[in-house]
Write a structure and sequence with these properties.
0% of the residues lie in helices and 18% in strands. By secondary structure, it is mostly beta strands. The chain has a domain at 47-79. A three-stranded antiparallel beta sheet has the order 1-2-3, with no helix packed on it. A hairpin with an 8-residue loop joins β2 (57-62) and β3 (71-76).
Length: 91
């Protein structure tokens, strides 16, 4: 189509091309999800109030204090108890 073939109406000017800015590019990044770290620890050893441990034995508190009087008794560890010698060989 040539310029001379374009007909203009009265009072009407050719429109300019409309330039629109391109839509902004939006990059959505996923929101990080932090999971709580669950640390499990073994339960503490029960407090034994009736026994006091030592390297070579222990004291035990015996008696209930009502029917039987309480007293501390020394119990040596197994390592200090002399072993029974083996019987002599049979002839």
């Amino acid at each position: 189509m040539s310029r001379s073939s374009i007909r203009w109406s009265e009072g009407c000017w050719p429109t300019r091309p409309v330039y629109a800015h391109p839509a902004p590019v939006v990059i959505e990044r996923p929101v990080p999800v932090y999971r709580p770290v669950i640390v499990t620890t073994p339960p503490p050893a029960p407090i034994d109030r009736d026994v006091v441990y030592y390297p070579n034995g222990r004291y035990e508190l015996r008696g209930d204090g009502v029917d039987t009087g309480c007293q501390w008794v020394w119990v040596p560890s197994v390592a200090l108890v002399p072993s029974v010698p083996p019987p002599p060989p049979l002839q």
